Amino acid sequence: MVQLIQIIVVLFAIFAISMAFLRFRDRKIKFSGLVLWAGVWAAAIVVILLPGTSFFFANILGIQRGADFVVYISIIVLFYLMFRLYVKIDNVEKNVTKLVREVAIDRERKRK
Amino acid sequence: MNIYIVIAAYNEEKSIISVIKSLKKEGYHNIIVVDDGSRDKTYELCKKEKIHILRHVINRGQGAALKTGMDFALLSGAEIIVTFDADGQHRADEIKRLTELVRKGEVDVALGSRFLDSKTKVPFFKRIMLKGAIIFTWAFSGIKLTDTHNGFRAFSRNAAEKIQITEDRFEHASEIIDEIAKKRIRFKEVPVTIVYSKYARAKGQSIFNSLRIAFKLILGKLAR
User: Fold this and answer.
1) What is the assigned CATH class of domain B3-223?
2) CA distance linking residue A21 with residue A37, whole number of Å
3) How do residues B166-193 score in pLDDT, each as one tens digit?
4) Is A18 part of the contact surface with chain B (CB cutoff 8 Å)?
5) Which of A1, A30, B99, B128 lies at 20 to 30 Å from B52 by C-alpha?
6) Whole-prediction pTM value?
7) What is the ipTM of this complex?
8) Where are the domains of chain B?
């Protein structure tokens, strides 16, 4: 019996994979990025259609339920991505400052 | 000696002109104001004065603005750089005393301290926050000061070239101390007076911001 949630997740995953593909075609992300995101969503499809797979991995790690395993992994991945974003934004901020500084100094030197 | 005064200003239209005038009255004519993307008339007002006025088109924070001003001072051939607040809480007639040891070449950095004499009446709550900051700085940089987060400082050219300010916002105050410790720059604290006008008090650091700064510094140390 197919549950409604399974249909939603599968449709969304297909949508996400197609988005990743389009972005790759437009050269907005690299091939490695396409593989990563396609992989993540493909894994989501597998896990939602065959709940046994998540249970299999959960068992190996000593986690009772398959759903718990999925939640734990998701949180770890999310935290990691957040950290990467944090570092990236910090770099962007510093670069903005450098630009703003250059413009400020340049303009004053030209004014004189 | 070629002394440059660097002022970071963010929305300071009410006080900036009188600060500039007080500096000129004391004979300091190399004044660099960095307008940090103010939304008021700070920039327009400063443009009418005979000073260097640099403008950040986007607000980047006090640390970033000071670095911009210091970079410009170095490019202009400054031998001594004094950082001065835009809100009128520092006194222009104390620059002479602050820079004295730097002029003599005895130290490379002179840090203003409001706790070295009893002239400054520090409000109770502010005092507690500052003491916390002092202990914090001590623990992190290994330098024991009587006052941190005092924006009244004098740098020799040599020191200004060595000290790297990378923190854009208020964390730069601790960063400067950190740099002094790391690069073993000769420094000394010099007593200065802080004028706690109603205006300056309203613009001071909130306790939440202080905690945010502490948190960011700890994160920064861990990431290094």
Assistant:
1) alpha beta
2) 9
3) 888 878 888 898 899 999 999 999 999 8
4) no
5) B99
6) 0.79
7) 0.81
8) 3-223
